[in-house]
Amino acid sequence: MKSVIVAFAFLMAVSLPPLTTGCGSGPAPVAQAPDTRDDDEAAIAAASKDWRDAQAAKDLPKCISFYADDGELLPPGYPLVTGKEDLRKEWEKILAMPGTLRWATSKIEVARSSDIAYETGAYELTTTDAKRQPVISTGKYILVWKKQDDGKWKIAEDIENADK
User: Fold this and answer.
1) Are strands 100-110 and 116-128 parallel, antiparallel or unpaired?
2) Is pLDDT above 90 for 128?
3) Residues whose CB falls within 8 Å of the CB of residue 18, separated by 6 or more in sequence, listed in order
């Protein structure tokens, strides 16, 4: 009889915990990461301003530094530009152009996950034609920013659309 009681006690000890855990209100809630979107938006706005300043100063290394290593530029009417070396070549051309390039941010939206964001805005490119007359081109852009492992935001996609 004693062995039956021991066996019963053993079975209860083994089977009861799994049964009681199934009776609760479900799994414990997973702690959600803090919402850092406001800080991320401010960081992207600051990076975008620094990039505009670097472009105005025709600082090629600094202009390129804002792109992710596998970043892409999709200029209107030209082939896709991918990677730092090709971006460097393209930005050499952009910075060598006579005239000015200006852009202004309209909106920055950061994903709840705080690992990706986009920025939209408008640009104006002022150059001169063969007769030295000013030529103004306008358009809009979208930048896709990705947070890097070091926490810095870098441009993954740079897409421009001319208005005409």
Assistant:
1) antiparallel
2) no
3) none
DSSP label of 94: H
Say if residues 72 and 80 touch (Cβ distance below 8 Å).
yes
**Residue 83: which domain range?**
37-162
Q: What's the order of all strands across the beta sheet hosting 134-147? A: 81-82, 67-74, 153-162, 134-147, 116-128, 100-110
In the predicted structure, residue 138 carries a pLDDT above the cut 70:
yes
pLDDT in tens, 108-120: 999 999 999 999 9
Phi, psi of 132 (to 5 degrees): 65, 25
Q: How many domains does the chain have?
A: 1
Please indicate, yes or no, if residue 110 is contained in any of the structural domains. yes
Report how far residue 51's alpha carbon sits from residue 64's, in angstroms, rounded to the nearest whole number: 9
Question: What's this model's pTM, rounded to 2 decimal places?
Answer: 0.78
| DSSP category for residue 45 | H
